[in-house]
Design brief:
Helix content is 46%, strand content 0%.
Length: 94
């Protein structure tokens, strides 16, 4: 355990492993895919809907950390920018 590591965002090994297991067992997806989805503006918009699928994911997030990151940043994987509005934005050509 890296309890002295300040770069773990306060996520314990147990929490991360539980989240990884839940993603696989409940959603059938790798935890990295779920983390990427949380950052996607289109996914967040869909998640606000009243569909059965959105409700299923909402219930999952209620139990497993919400939209907060649940994976420790890896040294070899860049941390995505959260809530910057820059994800998916493209410049319009004039």
């Amino acid at each position: 355990s890296d309890d002295d590591d300040d770069d773990d965002w306060g996520i314990s090994d147990i929490e991360e492993n539980e989240f990884r297991r839940a993603c696989t067992d409940i959603l059938g997806l790798d935890a990295e895919i779920v983390e990427e989805s949380k950052q996607c503006p289109a996914f967040r918009h869909w998640l606000q809907g009243k569909t059965d699928g959105a409700l299923y994911w909402q219930m999952f997030f209620l139990k497993y950390g919400g939209l907060a990151p649940m994976l420790k940043p890896k040294k070899d994987r860049p941390v995505a920018l959260l809530n910057t509005g820059e994800i998916g934005r493209r410049r319009k050509k004039r």
